[in-house]
User: Fold this.
Amino acid sequence: MSTSALTHDPAATNAANAANAANATGPADPTTRSTGGSAGTGSPGIPFGRLLHLELRKLVDTRSGRWLLIITLGLVAAINVGFLIWGDHSTTGLTTFVGGSSQAMMLLLPVLGILAATSEFSQRTGLVTFTQEPRRLRVVLAKTLAALTLGLASMAVALLVGVVSTGIAVAIHDPVDPWHIGWGALGGVLAQLLNLLQGVAFGLLLTAPAAAIAAFYIVPTLWMFLTGMISALRDAGPWIDMARSTEPLVMGTMNGEAWAHLASAAAIWTLLPFVVGCVLISRREIK
Amino acid sequence: MITFEHLTKRYGSFTALDDVTFTARPGVVTGFLGPNGAGKSTAMRVVTGLTPATSGTATILGRPYAQLSNPAAQVGTLLDASAQHAGRTGREILTLGAIAVGVPRSRVDELLTLVGLDEGESRRRLRDYSLGMRQRLGIAHALLGDPEVLILDEPANGLDPQGIAWMRELLGGFAREGRTVLLSSHLLHEVQLIADDIVMIGRGRILAQGRLDELVAQGGITVRSLDDAALTDALRRDGLVVTSTNDALVVDGTPEQVGRAALAAGVVLLELRQQERDLERMFLDLTSSTDRGHQASDTQAIDTHATDTQESAA
Assistant:
């Protein structure tokens, strides 16, 4: 079909009508400033990079956030020094230092995730944040990525501290195979990130930092006791218990079944509260 | 321009906003007036997308808030001056705002100067700010992106008289540039000082709205003459509504209409004046009658915009 055969172009007519409609309402008030093309057009909200920048900065620009990182890294340094002084001098190497540091971070990094997820509600900054970006799940995503980024950065620092400690150990104790590091270290990074994500998820679900921190440390422990006592649950243990399912991960002994255990436990302890938390946040009234 | 159309918000059986319809026009400061708990803050949270409405629509610059591109640059909001992290400094709060809106950091210093927070104050933590300082910081935060629309919830709360005068200057200038300002207050005299338009709300319902001067002028004309009976006839012949009080007539019209009717009827006038309606009394009447839980129909809704339209149509 040839468009030239048409006597008029419907698209052009529509455009003209739209322009007329705009003129009819446009100049009614001479004081109306032109809002520029940007007022209505353009994609909604703000770019994701800006959100991520904001959320990273928010994690370190308050005393609580800053001190949490200082305490975490301070503890890492203390553990390294401890191993250097009191450790078994013949075997203390990189694996020992990194393993020790990850114990401390396993305890403290989730708090970073909890604070990232709860601060908008505990400090009521949500009134500001969610008017800057009304698409709340993008804010949640930015917070999650910011917490993971800071978690990875902490682990990188811990690794660096471990390398320095190993260098010192080599110089003064001459241990056996000091630089050996197995798959368990990489598994440890994944375990840390899952643990941190679980903190974010609990924070999103409960929104009050105290409640989220308490739940994070108490509920899995209670669960472990419960599954240990009830025989019917004992067999299901690795499927539903995060501590047991991450054990082979940090030991570097993962196999097909262990991965299935891990996926199942992470779905229960991280994915489920994360998804429910996201649903609640997208529906909640921000006050 | 901010538009509320038939906006209703219910919490269970409680109706926080009941069929709210009004427009905050560009070029003027609109005062959203009502007692505590009347629904002002709820309406402001609905229009900024923080609270979902039960029914009806609220738009800013012709769009739902959530569809605005970089909304904080188009709509400056101050919903609660204390809803900021207490441990951040004023400067840090504005810096975060500048990053979010995408304006250079130099904006932070410009705005600190504009709202009168000095270098030392800007480096103090929010928890050490007085309410007045928090309000100034909140206004600076709202203005970061040079927005077209301002939505301020109780911005004058905690400001001293000097601060209120400052805010009137600031918001008046902002409106004169053709921008839109909607601010709420539970204090009539604050709104009278700052606003051009008034929207009065009680128990979630709009009770009165229109231009401040027209709302004040709705008291009618008080007239006394040597022959009230003849004057009444003359006025009624002109189609004016006349009610008589003890020693005077009250006419729903303009002084000119009454004067011409008196001239035509040859009646000597002793007094002719515009009754100034006391907004304070009106506010108390409207709000107390709703507070006592009267049926909404008891309260006569006043809408000077509506009468404007009728007059121009006639």
